[in-house]
Give the backbone structure.
Amino acid sequence: MPGVYILDMYYSVEHCGVYVSVRQSILAILDQGSSYGYRLRAEFERRTGATWPLNVGQIYNTLDRLERDGLVVKGETDAEGHVFYSISASGHDEVASWLRSPVLRAETTRDELAIKLAIAVTLPGVDIDEIVRLQRMSTMSTLQDLTRAKNSGGDPGSTDELAWLLVVDSMIFQAEAEIRWLDHSRSRLTRARAEGLSATGIQPELPRRGRPARSEPTSTNESVAR
Amino acid sequence: MSQELLRLTGVSRQYGRGETAVSALAGIDLTIAAGEMVAVMGASGSGKSTLLTVAGGLTKPTSGEVVIDGQWISELSAKQLAVVRRRTLGFVFQDFNLIPALTALENVTLPLELDGWRARDSRRAGMDALASVELSDRAHRFPDDLSGGQQQRVAIARAVVGTRRLILADEPTGALDSQTGELVLRILRRRVDAGAGAGAVLVTHDARHAAWADRVVHLQDGRIVGQTSQGTAEEALLGADR
Ligand SMILES: Nc1ncnc2c1ncn2[C@@H]1O[C@H](COP(=O)(O)OP(=O)(O)OP(=O)(O)O)[C@@H](O)[C@H]1O
Ligand SMILES: [Mg+2]
């Protein structure tokens, strides 16, 4: 399978969000019939084009948690020592509901880049244009790698290949979206600078008056200091 | 070292004079090798179209040199330049530039006929080019009877017809949906990868399309502010022309 390493690289930051899907994916695979750790790992990797390699320890951890939550049942051990797990009725329901529900992006991604730019724009003496320029080139290069990987794959003659293409396309569109956002940010910054905005360093402590304590449910139209 | 198809050295281009002069290109150095596809990106007004028309010998640079396939443009007569353009260059204009009085097929075969191809040969080449953009069934329609995206595909067929080796395409996917856009990129890629010494420069706003290129050149205010290639993010950054 081409391009696997590239995909790893690009996704290494997003593993936090991905774990949720690993749990659901393992469960969905078990919904097809009972299986054991090594086999589940192989199935997961086959079905996602080996894009997110897992170690078998992660699989067993996941299985333990699924068992604890009553979604799978630990069964027989076969002659070779494989411990078989099978899905429970509530596990089956969970799979159905996972497939039915949209993935809420906002809950799964913690966007480091957005945070980085937001912080950088407030720091005096930081060349934010240069940060945006370098990030854009880096993401563009990733996008080129992904495109090359996609184009060097075969025709989607099998569902495995098709599954892999869907995953690569998703990454391609995400990289593209990031580039568009960076271009948008660049013109926003240029415009803001033309209007005389500049970074401020640490803001002096503001007077208490008019600033509600964080947990108090007071006025809703409090505007953020900029 | 691979063969050089196009070289721009210190190319600048100004429009107008004095106070109102616009510097559309400022000191561009760019080389395209045979077998290479290069994408040019940049904000509106950054000089992409100007770069392409200068590279294609359609606009004279205010200063600097343009060398197309070993020929110094500044040393050619208008007639010689026209021959270079016809034989070596395929140009896709941002606004298509089809001739309204000619059918799709006639538009595509025009450069071949001007170049003295036999009618049968140019017709066959023209139909092949139209087939590659999936427009065989519209060959005898006039541009006015085609949709915007179809006109764009005719313009692409006209640029790649025959054996032209340097394709210069200004937003060739601008009017196309995502799948048809990929079809066009596949055509350009195939031409460049065929090992026949072809190369392409592609102007685009679409990062997904630019990513099909071997190299992406980033323009800003008429200058190259960076270049990226596959798998070389770090190197590209270090080598950025700044
Ligand atoms: N014939 C002309 N006369 C005067 N100025 C021109 C002419 N052609 C282009 N320009 C100016 O040169 C600059 C670069 O124009 P160019 O058409 O190369 O930009 P571009 O990057 O292709 O933009 P777009 O993405 O909008 O097509 C612009 O500021 C434009 O106004
Ligand atoms: Mg233009």
